Amino acid sequence: MAEVEIESTPGLQQLFRDISPKFNPTETENVVQSMKRNYGGKFNLLDNQDLLSCLELLEKHGHVSDNKLILIEEFVVLTISNKESQQSIKETIESFKASRQAQVGPEKELQARHDDIKKITKKLETGHMVLNLFGSAVHCGAGKGRQELESSFVQFLGRLSEFDCKDKKTALKLLLTSRTQLQDTKKVDNFEVKSLESSSSEKILLSKGITNVNTHQKDKLIGISKGIPLLLKGLAAILRQERKSPDDLITGVHKGQAVASKKSKSEEDAKEKTFDFQEEGVDIGQLSAIREMFDTLPTDRLKMSAVSISLFCGPFSVSTAAKVLSISQSEALAQLEGLVTGAIIFVVNEEAKERMYDIHPLLRKYADSIKDDAKFLRDYMEAKGRFHEHFMSNLGKLPNI
Predict the structure, then answer these.
(1) Cα gap 118→102, rounded to integer Å
(2) Cα Rg, the chain, nearest whole Å
(3) Both ends of the chain: CA-CA distance in Å?
């Protein structure tokens, strides 16, 4: 196998060196082959017995970091059959985490929104019962019936506020997201969420491990994203995982723009569900960036899982995903974490006891729009059947009311 050149942070490098010898050859091969199946790309170049390089590549591509070790703790370590060895590795990891607590805080993904968060918090504490976050950086769908929905919602707020006023002890607050400003200022306070400035966009785009982007390429990519964090993270994931070079990524987005511009609705395949990017508040360039986020996922497994996950309309667990995807929980964890690293889905609450995942509404709608593609249709329909079976069985467990 070809040697893969990888740089790793000193602390993690030592942790990897400490734990990798504790795996026997069979366990080592199982881990490396699983990473090849799920993550492909540079992992395919690794020797099946080179666990150290495999762990280092997980870090380089963003699957693992100083304060993000779940893939090692709940997937890699559990491949060890010897309980004593497994416990020894767990203790080594806990020791590492304890030593890093004073040095490494939580990842500051919201750092660029620090001022906005302070203002929003103040409004929630002192302002109206309802705070509506709106603006071009908020993607939550609009649709043709937006005015009717807004009118109905204002009526709902009226009834809700009546209920709230009856109980003075209640401190009910609602936080909404919308692309438009709500007009009933007596009941609703509005706060505009603007796109990130160039300097803040750069911090997200050029995250740790991305060093091969020049100023011209950086400006092009930030321009494509329009300063929207969702897209900046997606483009950054493509670059960090070396799915495409900066120039190839820019070219791919521009080609996608050209195709979308020329393609009329009459030319659409009758079986293809049209993704109305204008209704969703994104331009052709941003739509092309979303397409790159999906199309460049390194394995068919991840692509099929991403499309099937569009079935979920709210947070879901590893165990539920495993049932719907018809895979083991360990494989489900690996795939979900791969999609998190690829910025397709996200973890709802890193501190929660049970790890829950969700997908952004805009990405869910795009995934839903490609489900009828021949590459995905059969797997999607099978997943849909399991999805319905799982949730109908849960409904059957509810007591009769």
Answers:
(1) 25
(2) 23
(3) 62
C-alpha 222/C-alpha 236 separation (Å) is: 10
Cα separation of 187 and 157, whole Å?
7
Which residues sit opposite 317 in a β-bridge?
Answer: 356
Bridge partner residues of 190 (DSSP): 132
Phi-psi region of 135 (alpha: psi -120 to 50; beta: other; left: phi over 0): left
pTM: 0.84
Is 166 buried (19+), middle (13-18) or exposed (0-12) by CB count in 10 A? exposed
Contact between 283 and 139 under an 8 Å Cβ cutoff? The reply is no
Closest listed residue to residue 359, CA positions, set 204, 243, 230: 230
Measure the CA–CA gap between 103 and 186, rounded to whole angstroms: 47
Closest CA to 200 of 278, 129, 112: 112
H or E, element range at 286: helix 284-295
Tokens linked to 3 = 């040697």
Task: Give, in order, the Cα–Cα distances in Å from 386 to each of 22, 133, 305, 311, 325.
Answer: 38, 36, 13, 11, 8
| Token couple for 183 | 């007009």
Per-residue pLDDT of the chain (401 residues; tens, 9 = 90+): 545 555 556 689 999 999 999 999 999 999 999 999 999 999 999 999 999 999 999 999 999 998 899 999 999 999 999 999 999 999 999 999 988 765 554 454 556 677 888 888 888 887 677 888 887 666 554 444 444 445 555 555 555 555 555 555 556 778 888 777 877 767 788 888 888 889 889 999 998 768 889 999 999 999 999 999 999 999 999 999 999 999 999 999 999 888 877 664 444 544 445 666 667 778 899 999 999 999 999 999 999 999 999 999 999 999 999 999 999 999 999 999 999 999 999 999 888 889 999 999 999 999 999 999 999 999 999 999 999 999 888 776 666 54
